Amino acid sequence: MKKSLKKILATALCFGVIGIMNTTADAAAKIPADASFDSTSTIQKENLKLGTEWDKVFAKSEKVNHQKVTFVNRYGITLAADMYTPKNFSGKIPALAVCGAFGAVKEQISGFYAQTMAERGFLTIAFDPSYTGESGGYPRFMASPDINTEDFQAAIDFLSTQENVDADKIGIIGICGWGGLALNTAAIDTRIKATVTTTMYDMSRVIANGYFDKDKDAETLKRERQQNRINLNNQRTADYKAGKYTRAGGVVEDPSEFPQFVKDYYAYYKTERGYHKRSLNSNGGWNTTSALSFMNMPQLTYTNEIESAVLMIHGEKAHSRYFSEDAFENMTGVKPSAFDTVSGNKELLIIPNANHCDLYDGGDKNYIPFDKIEKFFKTNLK
Question: Which of 46, 52, 96, 346 is deepest in the core (most CB within 10 A)?
């Protein structure tokens, strides 16, 4: 076999792209068919046990229809979602996939956004990420920048194949840590025509550098990252010896000695306002070692290549505001101004006086700019 043919074969086997061998008919003819391929590549859905009662932290709307749905991601994990459809619509309509916050479930923030946007004329789904809530995946309570980005893409798969959805008019909404994942998804999935992020976290950055990394010098950040790696890898060893995964803990039970933003989290996740029995933040949190993959995989690397429309929304008083401001600047090359900055089809909107959690459910002053979000999607999903 000539060297060039060997190189082609090596590439094909490496990436599983056997079709490359069609360029060399003689070689392709010698490759035996894999009789098991059809059965092993079939998309198979797990039979999830889904609740039937209305167990959301927000009131049920009489303006929309609601049902539970499931779909499968590329890693074979079956995801559970609440689907909201406007009453009395006809034909094919625009659709939105919604997720977040990071460590929340669809009965909390994402469901509130999804139901509200359905009231405004969109078919929407709010889904539980892999390994959490009512979705499948074992072990439980794991997170991954790759798998969680794939969760969003799988939601687009599902919406794109619904008879009542216009597949050319699909957008996504990512809240908190899922805001960063939404941008990561928009950078890879060209089926997404418009993206909204609210109160965004860059989980790769905060896990790698901690909060407020701008206030630290490079050498300090390097030392802290290394110590974090040591701690997390020691935890891997301890978990394997124990035969179970240690959880990091959700929102603290007593926030009195913590900064204000922790008190804001407590006021949502630990009170009647937002507590849910399946929410990681309301209870035991993620598996501790989930943090490792985020440290090593910056998720906003290619956001400057997003060609579709993006609207980023953040609170003026949010501790996390710098995540959206820096992401917007990295995406557009434009330094944000005080409250509203536009660059082409990208916009950063800062909500006066709002803190991080005010954009979860509107806080006490209806801080979420749903009119703006509706107009943004209706302008760009066309």
Answer: 96
CA 23 to CA 3: how far, in whole Å?
Answer: 15
Other beta carbons within 10 Å of 146:
13
What's the gap between Cα 188 and its chain centre? 13
For the chain, the average pLDDT equals: 91
Burial class (CB in 10 A: 0-12, 13-18, 19+), 62: exposed
pLDDT digits 0-9 by tens, 9-39 = 444 444 444 343 344 444 444 545 555 556 6
Fold that domain 67-202+299-380 belongs to in CATH: Rossmann fold (3.40.50)
Beta strands 340-343 and 346-351, pairing class: antiparallel
Class of residue 229 by CB neighbours under 10 A (exposed 0-12, middle 13-18, buried 19+):
middle
The per-residue pLDDT for 178 is 98
The strands making up 64-72's β-sheet, listed across from edge to edge, are 64-72, 78-86, 123-127, 93-99, 165-175, 194-198, 309-315, 346-351, 340-343
Residues 6 or more apart in contact with residue 97 via CB below 8 angstroms: 124, 125, 127, 152, 155, 156, 159, 170, 171, 172, 173
Quickly state the pLDDT bin for 316 (edges 50, 70, 90): very high
Q: Where are the domains of the chain?
A: 3-33, 67-202+299-380
